[in-house]
Each structure stands twice: as C-alpha cells, then as structure tokens.
C-alpha cells in the first residue's frame, strides 16, 4: 500500500514539474527565436546593446577643448576614429587646425594642433598609404599666404606627426574643402577669387577651383569653373570605374544674379571637362555634397521653396542627365550624404546637417528609395514610395558636417552646444 502511494506521489510530482517546466521551455524557445530574428534583421538606428557592433563601444563622442571645437570630417582607421576640424581657444584668438585620434571606446589617443597668427581650418582627410592627407584653409602670413586665404595641404603620420605642409593660392581669396584620392595623386576642391599665382583661371568673382597634385603635393593641373559672379564648389567625389572627378556647388553667374542654381561638373584625370548639369527651382538651390554609387550620382543640399528652407536630394546619371530632384523636411539643410545600395530596387541615402526649430540642432536620417524606376519628380509632385526617417538631436545649437558609411557603422560628425560651449560632436550608429 505504501509503495503504491509513493508511486502515485512521484507521478503527481513529475506531472507538476512538467507543467511548470514546459511553459518555461516554450518561452525560452520563443525568446531565442525572436533574438535570432533580431540579430539577422538590420537595425539601422537601434541603440540597444544587443544590436550594437562590439567593434565600437560608444554611441557618441563629445569633445570639449577650449572655447569651440568643430569636427568637419572623420575617418575610420586602425580600429578607431580620426577627426579633423578646428578649435578656438578663446573668442579673442584665431582658429587653429585640429586633428584628434580616438580609440574604439572614444578615448583620446593623441591631439595635433596646427596654426599661426591667422585662422586655420581642416575640412577633409584622405588616406595616403599608412599616412593621411588633410586639406583646409589658412590665413597666416608667416606660412606664405599670398592673399586673404590660401588652400592648405598637410601630410600626417598615424601618430600625428606632420611630414610636410603646402599652401596654394593667388592674390585674393582661395579655399579648399574636399580632398580626393584618385590613385596616382590627389585632387582638392574649393573656390578661388582672382587669377594669379597658383590660380591660372578665373572668370569673374568666386569660381569653382579644382586642383590635381602628385603624392608630394606638387600641382599637376588647375581648373576653374564659373562666370562673372559667384560660383562656389562645396562637394566632390571620385568614380574609379569611370576615372571621373565630380564637383558640385552653387552659382548665380548664369542667372539674373539673384537666383542660385546648382551646377555639377565632371572632369577626367587630365582636367578636361566631360559634362556639366544644372539643378534649379524658382528661387535658390544650393548643393553642398555629392556622392557616387553604382547606380548614379546623388547630390544633396538645401533650397528655398515658397519662402521656406528645405533639404533636397537629386540624382544625376553618370552621363550628366538629371533624373530627379526631391525636396523634403522644412527648416533643414543637408550638409553631407552617402549611399547604401543593396540592389537596384532599394537605395538608402544617409544624410546629415541641421534642423532649425527656433534653434539649429544636429540632424540626421535616412532617405529610402524603394522603387527607383518610379521616382519621377514633376512640378513639385512625385509618384514615388520613398521613405524619409529623421533623427533630430535636442540641442540649443549644433549641426553635422559629414557622413561616413563603413561596413559596420555610420558616423556623423560636427559640433554641439554643451555646457555653454561648442563641443566637437560625433554620433555613431550600427548598420
């Protein structure tokens, strides 16, 4: 009798345990399944630790040094981030060129300052073997500046040591904003104001300025584009397949002098113009960046449309044909954009700049074109199925200047208002 009762108690106990454990196993299985799906799903703007790549451990870097810091461009290299820009020690002094190296945790490894009695800014950086080429602008007369400003190139080692520095310019106002590695040398892009010195062409006031230099910084050729008024280049990219240099900017030389149009101009490696295309609306259209993908050339910037400032994205074919212009997001400007191209049916443009809701604040997002063939703009309307996702950052003042897309991360850089000072600001998100 006791044996039967014991067996019965054991069976009852086993049944209870089974009733408790089976739901737990089921929940665990569901949890594992959901986790697997989440890991395989690209969470572009996820902030959770489980979705973040372990190669970089910081979501953002806030860098305060002196009175003001601006990070105009970043480069992912050697497992960390190299940021170039400028800083102001105090309001009574001049800007100094600034380069800061951060490790994968956002910790400063080293800092390099460069400057004289005038202003110095760094705007872009490119790789040269293990070293870097940095481009910017200087006004320090002790460096040999010929006019008000000259373009500046620096070669720097991975530890921040300067190998050489060169300035380029004429008798007036000459600046450089972009540097492109074109295989056998480099091309820097900016604007010039008056013919003379290194400026061999000028057609009026400001002109686009495109200069090819060899790896040692010696000029191979110099070109200008423009007319009698103001023509200024801000964005540039290089297509190694077509061996084509593409430059974009704004111009009022070919209008009534009031309206600004966007001109994108393509050159070969000998400096010969291949084509030019114009982007325009009823008032002002101002391109600030250009990026090249396998499907075409994308230009971004801002427009004034019916009295309101908006961002725009345009697509140009590699033969120079304008395919569309899309405006969106009131009170915003795109400063920089890059392409993520999975296939011909889905193109994602990562953009950054600022959004003005009373105070300018850093702003970034993605523009997804889900059906490129349907993306047709006419008279301000379209029949596309595009998706715009915006991510403004709460701030009293700030903006992003650059967008960098790598295999695992997307990095935006600029400045933000922190503790009553402008700090260098880097935002990092996983792809």
Structure description:
This protein has 431 residues and is mostly beta strands. The chain is globular, with a radius of gyration of 26 Å. The strands form eight sheets. The chain has a four-stranded antiparallel sheet with strand order 1-30-29-28, with no helix packed on it. It has a four-stranded antiparallel sheet with strand order 2-3-4-5, with no helix packed on it. Helices cover 9% and strands 55% of the residues. It folds into two domains: 1-41; 48-112 and 187-430, Neuraminidase, CATH 2.120.10. A hairpin with a 2-residue loop joins β2 and β3 (80-88). Residues 1-54 and 372-383 have low confidence and may be disordered.
How would you briefly describe this protein structure?
The protein has 431 residues and is mainly β.
Shape: globular
**Strand residue percentage:** over 45%
Number of helices: 1
Strand order of the largest sheet: 1-30-29-28
Overall strand count: 30
Assembly category: single chain
CATH architecture of the largest domain: 6 Propeller
Low-confidence stretches: 1-54, 372-383
Radius of gyration of CA atoms, rounded to a whole number: 26 Å
Largest sheet: 4 strands, antiparallel
- The rounded distance between the terminal residues' Cα atoms is 68 Å
> Could you estimate the helical fraction of the residues in percent?
under 10%
CATH domain topology of the largest domain: Neuraminidase
Mean pLDDT: 85
Summarize this structure as a short list of keywords or feature phrases:
431 residues, mainly beta, Neuraminidase, 4-stranded antiparallel sheet, 1 helix, 30 strands
């Amino acid at each position: 009798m006791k044996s039967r009762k014991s067996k019965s108690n054991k069976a009852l106990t086993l049944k209870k345990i089974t009733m408790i454990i089976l739901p737990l196993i089921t929940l665990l299985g569901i949890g594992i399944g959901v986790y697997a799906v989440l890991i395989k799903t690209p969470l572009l703007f996820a902030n959770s630790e489980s979705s973040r790549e372990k190669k970089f451990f910081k979501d953002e870097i806030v860098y305060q040094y002196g009175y003001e810091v601006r990070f105009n461009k970043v480069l992912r290299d050697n497992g960390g981030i190299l940021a170039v820009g400028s800083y102001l020690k105090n309001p009574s002094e001049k800007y100094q060129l600034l380069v800061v190296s951060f490790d994968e945790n956002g910790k400063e490894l080293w800092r390099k300052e460069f400057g004289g009695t005038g202003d110095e800014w760094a705007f872009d950086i490119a790789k040269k073997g293990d070293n870097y080429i940095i481009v910017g602008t200087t006004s320090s007369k002790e460096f040999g500046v010929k006019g008000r400003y000259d373009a500046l190139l620096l070669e720097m080692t991975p530890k921040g040591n300067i190998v050489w520095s060169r300035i380029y310019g004429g008798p007036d106002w000459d600046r450089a904003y972009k540097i492109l590695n074109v295989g056998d040398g480099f091309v820097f892009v900016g604007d010039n104001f008056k013919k003379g010195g290194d400026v061999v062409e000028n057609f009026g006031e400001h002109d686009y300025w495109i200069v090819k230099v060899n790896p040692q910084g010696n000029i191979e050729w110099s070109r200008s584009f423009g007319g009698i008024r103001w023509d200024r280049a801000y964005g540039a990219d290089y297509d190694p397949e077509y061996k084509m240099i593409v430059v974009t900017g704004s111009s009022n030389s070919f209008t009534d002098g009031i309206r600004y149009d966007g001109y994108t101009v393509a050159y070969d490696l000998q400096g010969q113009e291949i084509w030019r295309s114009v982007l325009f609306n009823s008032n002002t259209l101002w391109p600030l960046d250009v990026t090249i993908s396998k499907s075409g050339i994308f230009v971004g910037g801002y427009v004034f449309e019916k009295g309101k400032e908006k961002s725009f994205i345009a697509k140009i074919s590699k033969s120079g044909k304008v395919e569309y212009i899309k405006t969106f997001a009131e009170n915003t400007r795109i400063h920089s954009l890059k392409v993520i191209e999975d296939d011909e049916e889905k193109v994602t443009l990562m953009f950054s700049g600022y959004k003005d809701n009373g105070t300018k604040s850093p702003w970034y997002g993605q523009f997804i074109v889900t059906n490129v063939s349907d993306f047709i703009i006419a008279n301000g309307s379209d029949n596309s199925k595009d998706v715009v996702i915006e991510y403004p950052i709460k701030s009293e003042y700030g903006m992003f200047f650059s967008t960098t897309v790598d295999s695992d991360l997307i990095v935006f850089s600029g400045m933000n208002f922190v503790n009553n000072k402008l700090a260098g600001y880097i935002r990092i998100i996983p792809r």
